[in-house]
């Protein structure tokens, strides 16, 4: 950031630097997905902006192969290994001593043609959380990352920025039509309940994560072959 933004960055006085150094309580990280990034230097004379300062372009596929399985949001693909890579990178690069995962989750399209009983069945979201938790544990155990809190997004379906009510992130289904916004637990909410009460079969996270790794390696092999 200092290299790209240069003198457009504000500066701290020596006193302000001493005041803020080591003063944070924890570092909060939101993680949803991972994209490919390509180095894209700013053109001579190009007006500097937040986007051009990054000097990169992003994409969700490479050589015709998607980076992960799609979800109900066009920008969000399922890439569980990314949360491990992010946590280890932040720890090693910035010497972060305490990290909270402040958001982690995935979206489904709000299909208004489905009944509530069908819309509340969300096995893809269960898989998403299952696989991300496994990589989160891997970052803690193998990567030595000090993660002390984890918050999923979201407890209930809600108004999602520019997407409005067209996507659903919640583990509780919200009925927008009944006038009372009735909340119904999805299968992912029941999965979380079983997870917290230790009713999920021992070893299931590890077994399923092996399949995640295998799928990741197959995608990587496919990209190499296409290249």
TrEMBL record:
Record key words, sorted: Glycosidase, Hydrolase
UniProt xrefs under Pfam families: Glyco_hydro_1
Keyword Hydrolase: yes
Catalytic residues (UniProt): 103
InterPro entries: GH, Glyco_hydro_1, Glyco_hydro_1_AS
Keyword field contains DNA damage: no
Recorded family membership: Belongs to the glycosyl hydrolase 1 family.
Official protein name in the record: Beta-glucosidase
Organism: Penstemon davidsonii
Species classification: Eukaryota, Viridiplantae, Streptophyta, Embryophyta, Tracheophyta
